[in-house]
Amino acid sequence: MSQVLLQLNNWCAGYAGVDVLNSIDLSVNQCEIVALVGSNGAGKTTLLRSLSRTIKGHGEMRFAGRSIYEDTPEKVFENGLVQVPEGRMLFDQMSVQENLLMGAYRRADKAAIKHSLEHVYELFPKMFERRHQRSGSMSGGEQQMCAMGRALMANPKLLLVDEMSLGLAPVIVDQLLEILTTIRQQGITVLLVEQDIYAALEIADRGYVMVTGSITQSGSATELKNDPHIREAYLGL
Amino acid sequence: MKRLLPVLLIGVVGVLIALPWIAGPTLIQFAINALMLATLAQGWNIIGGFAGYASFGNSIFFGLGSYGVAIAMVQWNLPFGVGLAVGVVFSVVFALAMGVPVLRLRGHYFAIATLALSQVMSAIFSNLDIAGRNIGLVLPLLRSDTLFYELSLALLIVATLIVFWLSRSRFGFGLIAIRENEDAAQSMGVNTTRYKVLAFTLAGILSSLAGGIHAYWITFIDPNSAFDLSLNVKMIIMAVFGGPGSVLGPVIGAALLSGVSELLSSTLSSVASLFFGLVIVIAVILMPKGLTDCWLKFPVSRWHYFIHNIRQYRL
Predict the structure, then answer these.
(1) Which of A198, B157, B168, B184 has the smallest CB count inside 10 Å?
(2) In what order do the strands lie in the sheet with A158-162?
(3) What is the CATH number of domain A4-80+156-235?
(4) Does B176 touch chain A if contact means CB atoms closer than 8 Å?
(5) Whole-complex ipTM
(6) Would you call B2 an interface residue with chain A, using a CB distance cutoff of 8 Å?
(7) What pTM was estimated for this model as a whole?
(8) How confident is the model at residue B314 (pLDDT cuts 50, 70, 90)?
(9) Chain A within 8 Å of B171 (Cβ-Cβ)?
């Protein structure tokens, strides 16, 4: 349970030589849901980008027991570090099923892919109903489900979920959060990056608070939720 | 219909192979041109139709293929086949060297950059001694339209088979994903840079072979005719008219439009291009997604198909 899956030590990353992230220390244990919260421009997306190796960084980064500092984006993806990108990023003109199959792009075992597809349809029955529909023609919530399903098709160890709640009705966000807890029960670890701090801390085990590129606070979700400073600054309570 | 298609295709190919022994020389000359354009449209289809990168640089490959054959045959006294290989080498080098930086650009910027590159290539070749500077090169004469016809036909068949393979391969699916949403493709583990460059190279090889055959057939090339931008516009029109991203669309588009253009210029001569433009405009309004889409959807929705298109694109 408490085996470390992702470990960042003294991790810095940024754009064009300017560091946005200042020595981040962060760890995610196996089968945990960890929330990374913070306001606009705190560096959350930058951190995710550097995790999926699309931007460079320096420091120590270990995933599933080995350093992934040198890995390419394709390699970390194959190793199970998979993103559900912000704004869904579906292939609009493709059908739902084609989108899901794109998630399994780097996998070769047809039988296993078929099994994953059935599993995703079990998790999202709505996606099964709409499997032949053009993904761009679905509602925002359904598109988010499709994006999550697609990420699951890649057989992830760690799911990086970026701004899942963006532009969605609260009731839909609740449904999606529930699905994340189900996914966790099935052995997939989740790093949930959110501006909607309240929603994220509802389901998370632990949380990190980011402000202008540094982690200012961390602790169990309950601790953070009850922290007077956070209540005041982010929750408006 | 689905089962009939392969039989029909084999029949058409059979007739095409036998054409030089059936038809007269005028028709064969027209057919060589049409086959060449179809091959170019098919090449453009790989980078423009599948990967979604509207390239104006494909005529560069055509020019490099032409110059490959011309330089090899005239300056180095090598056989035609080696010339084709030289052209392919030029094209592959160019595609790898230029593709890596240029394919980082998206949308209009990619189109503009490739457009500029083709002007640059024309300028470079008109200053190269080995390429005959502005005057160009005159190739040895080989009077055998049948040979050129069969060569062009073989090249088109190979090009179409490659696109057919693409349409059902992992590589092709990756290219389609890039067209639909490049960021998403990248986040799904598609190595987008490598795929785009490979698609560009593949398109380049086909265009350069077509250029090589064309140069030997015409027996004369100069920088302006080798790097002719209007040729690039033609391949885009033909591929888009036929249905970009489909297997047979560009071939049918090229055949139909070559026919229409020939028919118009023989009956109307001076105002032919005006009517040719009109045909294109009407085609774009009525079936903006190309012939292939019309072929698939017209039997279902009949003439509503055209009305739907006009409404959807607010024309």
Answers:
(1) B168
(2) A81-84, A158-162, A189-194, A33-37, A206-211, A214-220
(3) 3.40.50.300
(4) yes
(5) 0.74
(6) no
(7) 0.84
(8) low
(9) no
